């Protein structure tokens, strides 16, 4: 045992130098770069940087879409910073819908854990891929494509969605088109942008 | 409406050429390259390529570890091929454990959907990050590091784990060390590899 | 000079083995993978694989949007395969518009070479970035975000747009929403997907 | 409409957290990392960060090469920071030439917008790919390979060149070899480096 | 010659702006991000940032494993920061062994420069790839897989190992399992993690 | 022990499906893509795919440069295919020189194992980084930049060079400029390309 301790101390010198890139917990107050947030000092990192408890409870679905998206992206869950993955919780009350949206720069995997969900995406070729998903079913939404989820059960449905990016973004269609500050002239003629002759 | 149709046909010519990289559903029988499987022909792709129903039911936990890992990686779920993400289901019967293992080349995000799980990972600096997770809790395991999951509930526990790779691999420690075909001389002196003086 | 020839022949042996990844001109008939098309045999590659003459003339703008997109993506211009870049030509007749669209997985740089163009994009935060561009002006559209271009001159306008991908895709909004084969029930209630109360 | 406003405010909370990686406009005075400059604070970003007007006019070709390269790289055009693309303008007076050079770490796409240009690159196998390009023609120069452009018209020629990197670098051959501060002994015997026996 | 100088000054203006990403020598005291350390100011960079002399002498092998690993990773050799490569020196006294370990997130190439080494790795499929290497032999250890090296000569053996990452990490197995601060309950029942019934 | 066997067989089913991306030994006769060669079938892979013995002996330096480069790139050593690393051996007889060259798309780390070498590279800013290296010294050559190595000992010198790519390419300057098939008109006026007024 004495030997082991001796060995440990000699090798740990190596390790403490080489470890820096095991992870890079985001320091949300430090400079941010194209690859993500600056790293929190390793000596300050604890297990709680790698655990997120904010998805235990349902999000508030008392809104017009009767749905909620609760993200655990790098901004909420700094442990995923730089690691190419993140997660969110979807809550869909009866008749709830996550309207047509994209995640610029991330693919998504959805798994239903309660209820049932009708989900779909639209490809660049304008094909629709649509499926009613039961509990335990998984669906893949390729990077950057428009997609949506609709509660197809009479009860609350829940899903967890994972992303191939720690900061996948979220661009909801009607926000983008109708709730923004486009010049009034454009707003009056939305068909010029939307092709609705 | 006539106009729209006219417009559609003229633009679809562009689209049908440019779309090829929306996704690349894996053709498991065609040549495979470093980036993944060859793509199934787009004309043969259906919504079922993007849906995986194999995680509905619990895996078989009647084994020595009282646990099961059910993967939806590119080999089982070709829709994720090339998209930088995949998923698996963990089932842990009472006292079940997923023993110490790594995923070479992928980070992992775990969410508990039933029961409770004690999970941990070990960093290169030899620090242990250990937490008891309740239903809805999320934990992050950085790329390539040793980690494990233990059922900490008296009942069956379930988790879904997502990976930052469509083919994350799975190297379980005692397999690697004791169940392989190392020369007998090495097997007789495993401490020379394992540092157990 | 004799020396040089001697030297050439000895070193070319090295070179001919090591060169394979200078480029990978796409073989459109061979298997395709997540990273792009299979490579044409180097011995068959000529300079014409790296030159594209299809953008000399204006595209046909006799359509409802009075505009044309002429792509030189990997499918049309196999020389860009695997090299992380491609280009297209935009032609906008008076009143022409490229309607709101995204390129899943690619950023875009536009340069106006004739006329003037009003261009804009919408961020995930629902902010609009809008500018009237003169000849020689450059505008950047970040990856995956909704954007559009409108002719703001009384004459034909031309722009060249480059992409950070050899196959950037092209998802035009009203195609995605109204010209696809969504179930009639959904089509009748598009507001459930589009949030138009 | 009331409903919409209600909905907007509830969802924008999500969006404002998750958006950070839509873009990362470079802050040229903040620390720089391997992936690019630190990001300007999103609240300070305006459309002018995404527009570059410095390429409207011809560069100064009153020099020995009768040519000018006007870059819109991350250092001049911070909007491209982290987005894998940039652009530059080439002006070639009659007899003008951009001498043999490389861009370490970026492929290039050139489009001729005025006049005509003789362009070429040399592969690792020592093959030359050479073509005279007319207005509207596109040529691809694979990453890191030596290439050049020569005005082949009797008038000024113009091209726009795009790169698969926001900071493609530019290493011009005769600079590298003859204008640097190599020890005089080496300079006196350049053939020892250049193989000109 | 006058002409050249004139030309140099005009072109260097371009160059000095565009060069920033030739390299990013790590500034170990500045913020670190997911892609590596912040860059040292180019004006402060000298050739010594790109040269590492710490591998001239053998590491100290007077320890229980009779072996030493001397790293030249980004933390010791900041010149490799952001460039996707690093190197280390292995010294193995007679009977020396580098015990089973992984490098999370990096592949490794080893070349024997003195003596002879028995090296091996274990795949996810639990296959062992084992070989006795002579001087000049090269062996490849794929990313993230468990591997080891044993001196198979009666004298000191030396190898240089290169990595596909500037900060490859180093997770030695028995450290990870037995020298860490796992709760005593787990330590008393290591078989629950290690599967040794 | 019985238990272990039982457990192995149940888990190996998982493993055998999920392992495919541990490595991708290149099948040099199958289609090649932008990311590298197609993968050899895992069942045909042996340890010899990961071992390269071609660097044991010195390369032939009986040539005009009195030097030899012996590559172990993907084309010679298919085990590195897709793994982001490769290696080569340099032999420099007295007065030997590896003339100015670049590796398009790869950084290089050199370690001297015999003799002494004067090495240098030129940055885009036209700065020269030059150093005389002794045995055991390491030098880094950033991606795509011109560099060279000269024997600075009176005896044979040896170095091993590693690359951040399995197929780094090799573009030697005087080949590129003088030994190729440029049109005679250009060859007669090489200064128009090389800027030697």
TrEMBL record, chains A, B, C, D, E, F:
Top-rank taxon, per record: Eukaryota
Domain Cupin type-1: 53-188
Location(s) in or outside the cell: Secreted, Extracellular space, Apoplast
Disulfide bonds: 24-39
Principal location: secreted
Binding positions (Mn(2+)): 101, 103, 108, 147
Source species taxonomy: Eukaryota, Viridiplantae, Streptophyta, Embryophyta, Tracheophyta
SUPFAM superfamilies: RmlC-like cupins
GO molecular function per UniProt: manganese ion binding
Residues bound to oxalate: 103, 108
Stored SMART domains: Cupin_1
Pfam family, one: Cupin_1
Similarity section: Belongs to the germin family.
InterPro entries, per the entry: Cupin_1 (IPR006045), Germin (IPR001929), Germin_Mn-BS (IPR019780), RmlC-like_jellyroll (IPR014710), RmlC_Cupin_sf (IPR011051)
CDD domains per record: cupin_OxOx
Designated name of the protein: Germin-like protein
Entry keywords, A to Z: Apoplast, Disulfide bond, Manganese, Metal-binding, Secreted, Signal
GO cellular component terms given for this protein: apoplast
């Amino acid at each position: 045992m004495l030997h082991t301790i001796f060995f440990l101390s000699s090798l740990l010198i190596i390790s403490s130098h080489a470890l820096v890139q095991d992870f890079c917990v985001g320091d949300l107050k430090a400079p941010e770069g194209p690859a993500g947030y600056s790293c929190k000092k390793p000596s300050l990192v604890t297990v709680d940087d790698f655990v997120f408890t904010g998805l235990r409870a349902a999000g508030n679905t008392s809104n017009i879409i009767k749905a909620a998206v609760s993200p655990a992206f790098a901004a909420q869950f700094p442990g995923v910073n730089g690691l190419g993955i993140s997660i969110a919780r979807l809550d869909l009350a009866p008749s709830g819908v996550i309207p047509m949206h994209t995640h610029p720069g991330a693919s998504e995997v959805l798994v239903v854990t309660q209820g049932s969900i009708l989900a779909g995406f639209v490809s660049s070729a304008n094909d629709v891929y649509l499926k009613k998903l039961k509990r335990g079913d998984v669906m893949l939404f390729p990077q950057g494509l428009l997609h949506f989820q609709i509660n197809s059960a009479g009860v609350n449905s829940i899903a967890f969605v994972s992303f191939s990016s720690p900061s996948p973004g979220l661009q909801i269609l009607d926000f983008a088109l109708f709730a923004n500050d486009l010049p009034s002239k454009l707003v009056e003629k939305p068909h010029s942008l939307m092709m609705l002759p």
